[in-house]
Amino acid sequence: MIAALACGSVGYLRLGLAEVRADMNTPTWEGQLVKFAVQASVRRNAAELHNPPPPTDENLIAGGKLYLGGCAGCHGKPGKPPDNLPGYLSPRQFFQAGTQYSEPELFWIVKHGIRNTGMSAYGPFYSDQQIWTLAAFVKRVNNLPPTLLEGIRAKR
Amino acid sequence: MGSLAAIVALAVGAAGYLGLGFANVGADAKPPIWEAVLMNSSVHASVRREAPKVQNSGVATDEILIAGGKLYLNDCVGCHGAPGKPASAFGATFYPPAPQFFLIGTQYSEAQVFWVAKHGIRRTGMFPEGRYYTDTELWTLSAFVTRSATLSPIVMKGMQQPPE
Questions:
Q1: What's the gap in Å between the CA of A118 and the closest CA on chain B?
Q2: Domain extents for chain A?
Q3: Is B11 an 8 Å CB contact of chain A?
Q4: Given pLDDT bands bounded at 50, 70 and 90, which one contains residue B14?
Q5: Which of A22, A37, A85 sits opposite B121 (nearest CB)?
Q6: Assigned superfamily of A27-153
Q7: What confidence tens digit (pLDDT) does each residue in A45-78 have?
């Protein structure tokens, strides 16, 4: 019976019957299942990560500058309306939706990426210290004083 | 009865595996060969089925290829690589990695490249560009991408010129 299931699956895929277009909404069951598995895996992997740096203004501004340079294109800019993209590539709009992930979990995601999504791994481009400041910023993204947001936009 | 029990056991096992966080979700790894082959062949089979049966009626003149090349340099080059350059380091950090057209070309036909550019590929970083570009523009892009290995010096030079 397992062989029959496997043959059926391969046939389904090889005949091209699996829909692959990204410009339509993700079915609820698929979205929930993926979220369930991804959150559990991130929680497990990030459990051993500690020592996020203190959320000083200096660190948050450093993280915010990284965010504007590397993340804002997909995840949204402060004070701007969300970019509501169709289902399969609908990156979290942090300034509207915030995040349920902890700082170590955000650190892990930024560093390693999430496979089979548009979230690529930034470990090759940023130091751990930089990624920690970014995680501190994203975690507090909706509780930042206006002066700090201005500091982020200021040129160094 | 035995079959039903097997299906239930499989489902419970799968839910436990996922719920305990054992599925590796990091993108900074190379997809295993079996996964890459299965995914690539399934995606290509689906695109073959969906892509328009008619080919782009326009002839791929230098002008069309240059227009497509300009779009490519504007929007695709960051992940898919630039002509005469090594593979894109950014494109390599996706799972699956973005194909590097100037190093490996593409097996997709012009109509298939058009379809992929317009609709994107779910569960990859390939974004549906139909939101931003007209069909006419995407046809010039697909003409360019399918010929990325055999572009004439005129096209290579023309696409680098800034707009007048």
A1: 4
A2: 27-153
A3: no
A4: very high
A5: A22
A6: Cytochrome c-like domain (1.10.760.10)
A7: 999 898 788 999 999 999 999 999 999 989 998 8
